[in-house]
Each structure stands twice: as C-alpha cells, then as structure tokens.
Amino acid sequence: MNEDDIYRTSTQFRFWTYTAKALTDLRASSNSLAASRVRDAIKRSREQGSKSETSTNNAVPEVDCLTVEEEQKLVGWYCTKAMEFCDFSEFPKAVKATAVQFLKRFYLSTSPMTYHPKQMMLSAIYLATKVENFYIGIAEFAKMIPKTTADDILAPEFLLTQGLRFTFDVRHPYRSLEGGIMELHEMSRGSYIPPHGSSFTTEDVRVGILKVKSHRGKPATMTPDECAERIKRAHNKAGDILTKGALLTDAYFLYTPSQIWMSALLAADKPLAEFYLHIILSGTPNGSVSEPSSLELRLLSLLEQCAGLMTRSSSRGPDETETMELKRIDKKLYHCRNPEKIDLVGMNKAVKEGSNGDKVDEEKVVKKRKIERDRAAKEEQDLFGAPLKK
Amino acid sequence: MAISPNNLEPQNARETKAPAAAKLKSLPVRRNQVDSAGKIETGADLTEHLNLEIKNKYEKDRKLGEGTYATVFLGHLKKDPKSEVAIKKIKVMQEYKDGISVSAIREIKFLQELSHPNIIAMHDVYSSKNQNLCLVLEFLPLGDLEMLIRDSEGIRYGTADIKAWMAMLGRGVWWCHENFVLHRDIKPNNLLIAANGEIKLADFGLARSFADPYNRMTWNVITRWYRPPELLYRARHYGGAVDVWSVGCVFAELILRVPYLAGTSDVDQLDKICQAIGSPTEQNWPGVSELQDYVKSESIRPLQKKESFLGLFGTVGEGGVDLLMSTLILDPRRRVTAKQFLQHRWWTSEPRPTKTENLPRKGGVSAREKVGEDLKRRGGELDNDKGADKVARKLDFGNRSKQAV
C-alpha cells in the first residue's frame, strides 16, 4: 500500500474530487434545482400576500434567478472575505484554508439563492476553528465580529455540516510543500539521498541543482548560497499561491494535494521544479536517464494545467469591473432569494423547540416568522456594512 | 506522494455525486403544505435529500445505553433485517452552547477517514429532525477487552491469544499513525470485540492529527493509567509515541490481568512508573529536565533490568518481554514506533497467534450491553461506577491563551 492508496481512502478523494465535467454538471443541477424552488417559494408568498387583496392573479413577472457563473462569482467573493477575516484575526492558515474549502464544498450542492453565503461564511470559519484545533468559545468568537450574535453564527452550522456530508477532514498541500522544500535544500547541501533504484548519486544531485537553468532558460552556475536563496524565493512564491489561488479556484476539487503543491512550485520556479521532479522520479523505470520519461512528461503537463488554473487572474482579488459586477449580482440576488430560507436563526429555533409549538396560535406563529424574516432580511443588508463597496 | 500515474488523470475520479444529483432532480418538488401546526413544509435541498436517504436506510430497534453525551441504539438495515448496527445519537443541542461539540466533530472527522479492520467502522452519518447527529457504527456484540481481562474466573487465555489481540491493536494504531492521527485514549475498554473475534479501536473523541512543528498540543489526554511520562510532565510537543506507551500498558495488563500502572493521582502515576521502570533522568532521557513539570526526585530509581520484567511477564517469552519493554521506554524518542512494533521478531516466533475465530470470547447479554456503555461515553470518560477521577476530558478549551488542544 503506497501513499496514493492511502489518499484514495480519504473523503477528500471519495466525496470531493471530481472531473471538470462532473463539477460543471453538479453546479448546473444544483442551480436549476434551487431556481425552481425559489420560483415556487416566491409564488407561494405572493399568493399568501394577495389573499387579502382582490386577486389580480396574472402578469406576475417570472423571477430572474442567478446563473451558475453569477453564483460562483458571489461565492468566490465571500471566500475572499472569509480569508480576509481569518488573516485579520490571525488564525492559522489551516483554519483559513479549511473554512474556504468548506464554503466551496457546501456551494457545490447548494445555491446562494437558498442560503446566502454571507450567513454561511462565519459558520464555516467557526466550524473550521473546531476542526483545525483552534477552538474558541462562541461568545468570544462572536465578539470579534460587529453586529453578530452567537446565534447568527451557530444557526447555519447544522445546515453546513449536512451540506458537507459530515466530512470535516480537508487535506492541504502545506506540509508537503515544506517537505519538498527541505528536500531541495538537502539536494543543494549534498545531503540528499536519491530514491531507491536511481542511478544518480548524492553528488550528482548536488552538482545538478547548482546548474539548474534560470527562469529565462539561461544556463547558470550557482554557489550553494545562491541556490539556497533561490529555493527560498521559490518557497515563498509557492506558499503564496497555496494560500491564495489554490484556495479560490477549483484546484482542490480537481487535483491531489501533492499535485497542488508541485504545481505551485512549478509556477514559482519552473526549471527548479522540473529538476526536482526528475530526481524524485529517477527511481521509477526509465526515470534515471537524462531525458524525461513518459510518466514525467504526463505529470508535467498535468502540473502545468493545475499551475495555470491557480495563477489565472480570477484567483486574485476582484478588480474594479469585477466589483461592479458583484454589486449587480448581489442586487439581483436580493430579488431571487428563497424567502423561506432567509431566517436561519428562526428556522433553527423552530427545529430545536421541536414539535412543542403545536398549540401556539397558528397565525401568531406565521406572523412572528414573518417579522423575524423581515428583520433578518434587513439586518442581512448591513451585517458586514456594505460589503461590496471597496 | 499522491502523484502516481493512477492519480494522473482527474478523469479517473469517481463521479459520485453527479448521478445522485440527476436522480434527485427528477424527484417531484414537494408543494407547500401548511400543516396543522402552521409550519410551512418546503422542498428539501439536495443535501437534505441525501440525508433522508441515508436515514431511511436504517431502523432503530432498541436502546442499548444512554449517557449525557450520547444514546446508543441497536438497529438494522431495512434492506436486511438480520443485519446489526449500533446507532450512536449524539445529543448536540443539550449541554453545548458552542454548536456541535468538538469531541463529536473529532470522532466524525476521523472515523470518516480511517477505514481499517481494527478500527471501528462508521457506515454512515445522518441527522435526525431535531438536529441530533447519528453515527451508524458497526455493531460489536462481544464487549470489550476489559471484560475479558477482568473475568479471570470465566475466561482463560494464553500467550497465543495475547499475541493475536496485540497484533490487531498494533495494526489499528499503526493505521492511525500512518494517517497522521493520534488516538490519545487507548485503553482496554476502548478496544471492542467484533462478532468474529476481531479487536476494534473505538472512541476517537480525543483524537487529533499530528501537529505541525512548533504547534503546541495539550498534555491532558489519555486516561491516567495509560498515560506516558512525557504527558505527565506536561510535554506540549509529542507524537505517536504517546499511543505506543498506552499499547504497552494494555499489553502488560493482558498478561497480568490487572492494570499495570494504576496510579491514584498524576503524582502517584509518575511514582508507579519510576518504581516499575525507573526514574527518568537526563542520562536515560536527554532533555527530560526541560519539560514543564519535571521534578528531580530525591531518590533516583535505576532502570529495571530485563530480568525483573521477565519475572513479571515471562509467560509471553523473552521475545514478548523484549517487545513490551520497547513500548515502555521512558524516552519517547527511543520508544518503538507503531511500525517497528509490528516488525518485531516476537510475531514470527512460536507460538503462532491464535486464529481470530478461535479467540476466547465472552458472549451473551452482558457483552452486548457493555458495548452500549462503551459507545455512549465520550473520550476520556470512564464508567460512572468506577469512581476515581481518571478523566482526561477537560481540554484547555475556551481559553485562547492556551489554544493547544
């Protein structure tokens, strides 16, 4: 049993790894399901509202629902918000990364039209603190966020865990990046032991790494110090990609953690990454020759794809036109939210109280719900101030 | 590294969700119905549907045990009335104001990931209407290892049996460590016995993944009798060696049929360790004096020689004693790893381990009920009637200055 086999037993692989097509299909079907629910729910609330009036039951415009692309932009925006919050609060990067993946996983099967990402975001961060051994009492956590009560954070927690299909383990590429960087340093220091079956010696590797071409393909001869410096730069740059682009794109859904960190290294310093890959694969059949093996070539092309994905502009923060676009989407969402799912605190309370509420006057309940809902909808508007202004 | 050719093409990834989504899409959207209570029933989400589907697979039969943390039911698969599962319903809402409790999250997190014949299997998780989490666990009807150890009248076992049990325990722990998980509560009553005689490591409420270097962890884990000296000295950085020590204590207990190092307090526990194994010093454990709670005792007891261990544990043979001693090395860096434990020569020497189906067992009603008792506890908790506060429960929660958990 090798590490690949072990990885394949993880829930990240079993539940949360997709082909690009499966991912697109899943998002499309979640979107259309949510849209039809929204239309029904809005129709229902209109019908209820118009009962008292003389019904002019026609010419109600069809609700304009969010598209998959719009949903994704919106979720992406709240992912960046979650990251900013985690950075601001000085949470460990594992908490940040897990929180973001929780949001991304949750919104594969749920639409922002059903549950607004703003409501889910804090809950995802809080759950991530519990999962990643950075547990904080809810009262203290709530204090860190203006105009937010413990209930606001906890009410969606249950929906979130359900949406995550009760899988909490997220495998990040951070530790393996550190391991790879250590190996690179060993290579340059002449203390690296090549894999079993490799025809390279420690000395071959040491000499080889000092001659790795520069970014621009120029031949180079580095001193060990210069090489260490170069590894350090690549380390920083790759680390940066892993805490930004890797989180915000679909990289986690499409690639394994090892593929992700190696792609980050490839994006940071391509010749160095290629050299590293060549050495660690030198123990495989046909690996120990000067020309890359076919396995190596296949891997490289896959890593290139992943690197491309993580460094595309969409993985950075939104620019001005994108901010305008987000504002438009947010406005649009205001009109196509599922009205029955807005008041999460109220819904949660109702579930907790269970069926004891039977005897309470029906109308009272309905009315109370409505008031709570309106209040929630209103507060919603300024929970985080005006979020889309920059 | 997960980069082998088998993982090269993401196209190979299972398209688990897509078919489910397609199927669910075709389900009729439920119309709203204002029921008698005036609540509006709304169409369920995709995930709510999935949850319901899982929930409907099982039927609860009767209650096996109830505690403050969880209630355990015996249940079965609707499809197969003869099947048996344990359904552990965690009381989420009751005592806990911080949402889903950390022990529940840990237990679910790790059982979802760890699939091994010597680790209790979690078939499913679902939520009940009242937002309680229900864990569908494999039902282990033959009680736990503690029952077998204590019943010295009724149950007789020998070296070959101990070897079989220890090998299974070793493999379970090795698998945890291989997956970067520390169990942190290994003890006989967390080792449950399956219908076929296999040992299963249970209760992951105190488990956590290995910490990154420099990250602090709590020392307050593992039930005291099974707690290694580094944790008694309040080490904040540790690894798989803590579980290996517990494995050694279970090993010794299997041979002696009473707990090996049964301290009545943390201080007494260290005292027992010094007497049985020797006093930790800078010579036998470099760096020990820097641990937070290390006190140099006035009377240093020398490390016990192999002869004294042979006297106590000789029934398992010289090889067995050698293995036992290697799990109870004071210096955690020199203690065997779970992997080395499994590579020891004792396993391949005579006698061969007993075949699983021939292992001594305790059947009947009492064993079935004991499982209910074991499962309803949470990590570090002991059965109420056992008195004495050996609880390693109180983690440093809620105090941000001590975020090490």
From TrEMBL, chain A:
SMART domains the UniProt entry points to: CYCLIN (SM00385)
Database matches in InterPro entries: Cyclin-like_dom, Cyclin-like_sf, Cyclin/Ssn8, Cyclin_C_2, Cyclin_N
GO biological process, one term: regulation of transcription by RNA polymerase II
Compositional bias of kind Basic and acidic residues: 368-381
Highest rank taxon of the organism: Eukaryota
GO molecular function, one term: cyclin-dependent protein serine/threonine kinase regulator activity
Alphabetical list of Pfam families matching this protein: Cyclin_C_2, Cyclin_N
Keyword Coiled coil: no
Domain Cyclin-like residue range list: 80-162
KW Phosphoprotein (keyword) present: no
CDD domains in alphabetical order: CYCLIN_CCNH_rpt1 (cd20524), CYCLIN_CCNH_rpt2 (cd20525)
Keyword list, A-Z: Cyclin
Positions of the UniProt region annotated as Disordered: 368-390
Protein family according to the UniProt entry: Belongs to the cyclin family. Cyclin C subfamily.
Name of protein: RNA polymerase II holoenzyme cyclin-like subunit
Gene source species: Gomphillus americanus
From TrEMBL, chain B:
Listed GO CC annotations: cytoplasm; transcription factor TFIIK complex
GO molecular function, one term: ATP binding
Gene Ontology terms describing biological process: positive regulation of transcription by RNA polymerase II
Extent of Polar residues compositional bias: 1-10
Composition skew (Basic and acidic residues), residue ranges: 367-399
Active-site feature positions: D185
Disordered as annotated region, ranges: 1-22, 351-405
Keywords: ATP-binding, Kinase, Nucleotide-binding, Phosphoprotein, Serine/threonine-protein kinase, Transferase
Family, similarity comment: Belongs to the protein kinase superfamily. CMGC Ser/Thr protein kinase family. CDC2/CDKX subfamily.
This protein's name: Protein kinase domain-containing protein
Organism: Gomphillus americanus
Organism placement in taxonomy: Eukaryota, Fungi, Dikarya, Ascomycota, Pezizomycotina
